[in-house]
Amino acid sequence: MIPIESDLLRKWKSIVGEENIINSRMELEQILYDVGHFKNREVLAVIKPSNGLELQKLIITMKESHISIPLYPISTGKNWGQGSRKPTGTEKCVLIDLHRMNNIVEINLKYGYAIIEPGVTQWEISQALQNTPYKINVTGSCKDSSIIGNIIDRGLGFNRLREDDLIAFEVILGNGKRIKIGHFSHNPAAALTWDIPFYAGPDMTSLFLQSNFGIVTSAIIQLIPRSECNRMVSGRISRSNLKHALDSIIDLKREGLFKSIIKVYNESAMKTYNVHSNPEKEMFGFYGFYTGRKRVVKALESILVDELVANNVEDIQITKEDNVSKENSTMFNWYLGIPDQCESIHTAFEINHCNGDEYSKKMWIFFLPDLPASGQDVEQALNIIQEAACKFSVIINSTINIITNTSIRLVISIRSSREKRGIEAARKSLEYLYREFQSRGYFPSRYDIDHRNGKEIFGEGEYLETLKSLKSALDPEGIIAPSHYIP
Predict the structure, then answer these.
(1) Banded pLDDT at 92 (limits 50, 70, 90)
(2) E strands, 277-430, where?
(3) How far apart are CA 441 and CA 406, in angstroms?
(4) Which DSSP state fits 485?
(5) What separation in angstroms does the CA of 377 have from each of 306, 381, 410, 442?
(6) What is the architecture of the domain spanning 104-225?
(7) What confidence tens digit (pLDDT) does each residue in 414-466 have?
(8) CB–CB of 120/104 below 8 Å?
(9) What is the CATH number of domain 6-97?
(10) Which run of H or E residues covers position 73?
(11) Nearest CA among 308, 376, 318, 397 for reference residue 81
């Protein structure tokens, strides 16, 4: 057994039950397997509360014992390529595993929201919304990944940014207080009657995105109304035409013809997602989604096809709900709010189940920079990626996500063998990407656990000092995820 202060451990067991605390070295080592091979962390125990009250008692009991052990929350632990279940900090700590907190507290079909806990997966909420007027904003990750965990880390859905789903949080602070923010603060019963942008006064909700101010125990998320008519347009773009075609597609996004995220995959990424690629020349796969009334969609379709043809997008296809091909079914379903059965994840990890960290034949690391929405900036970014792949002999997938009228988010995944040489090559290529992208003013939207250094991200100025002051006010003893973005 790995020792924790024995009296505190006994009290914690009385709160959550002995079976919900893991502190044997063998079990902890298995839990901390990491497909990205990030630096080792020293975790003393994993504790699995079943509700917010138990979590609050864990913190209060530790404070009353005059002990300060860092607590790092995880939801379902599928933060692959960014650290998986490993905590950010390198000090001795305890993981708070929230997967047992998996209640869908409420689905309100009148006003289009759901109240969920951190253990609720995108598959569970999508199934709960079957045959209703609403869908959920899903990602292309595992069906068992957490909605709240991904929102907190500013993830990327197919219909919009995950943080755009957020209405409110319930949070337990390091001082032991349990607070409701956003709509929760004005309506503790969570019986929303309509959605308005803001209530009077400051809104603290965004303070708990990518921060260590507290542990989120539930959230209100905005659902997406289903449309009368849904269409996906797809095509292929040659490497030589990519800059020009992207600029044209970005213009279509700016005009409001595409409201969802536009996806453009490189050839390696298309193979990962079982999408047909052209072996004769380097091609990129393009996917866009548009919805509305039938007459509106028909008019949009005519404009979109004409524009794409005029800009030399090849192999243009229109996917409708009654003509979905096997090739396009996964992508179309993602836009419709239906996670797949993890076939793409299994293909990527070369496994037949979702335990990618332990059994994957390849190591995976993700790098997630944001760029201005322009073909020229994408060209420059792809050149850096190509240099890294050649220099370090690794496979690099890249997805170009046109997320707003002015910005693009790249999802870059580095694949290599899990032997020592392959791991070293992947790590060196990641450092190369961080250095080269940041030297050109392209900064990540999310950082992996080895790069969440607040001093390097924010600089040692007044902004960081203000964040540290907020941290001290909300978590005086610094027990919630020390060094997770904020020192």
Answers:
(1) very high
(2) 283-292, 314-319, 362-372, 395-402, 407-417
(3) 15
(4) S
(5) 25, 6, 11, 9
(6) 2-Layer Sandwich (3.30)
(7) 999 999 999 999 999 999 999 999 999 999 999 999 999 999 999 999 999 99
(8) yes
(9) 3.30.43.10
(10) strand 71-74
(11) 397
Q: What average pLDDT does the segment 318-336 reach? A: 92
Dihedral over Cα of 14, 15, 19, 22: its sign: negative
Among the four given CATH numbers 3.40.462.10, 3.40.50.150, 2.120.10.30, 3.40.1620.10, the one describing domain 361-446: 3.40.462.10
Q: Are strands 113-116 and 21-22 parallel, antiparallel or unpaired?
A: unpaired
Which fold is adopted by the domain 229-345? Alpha-Beta Plaits (3.30.70)
Judge whether 220 and 477 are in contact, CB under 8 Å.
Answer: no
- At 344, is the secondary structure helix, strand, or coil? helix
Domain residue limits, the chain = 6-97, 104-225, 229-345, 361-446
Note the pLDDT of residue 186: 57
Report long-range pairs for 296-299 (Cβ below 8 Å, ≥24 apart).
296/229, 297/229, 297/230, 297/231
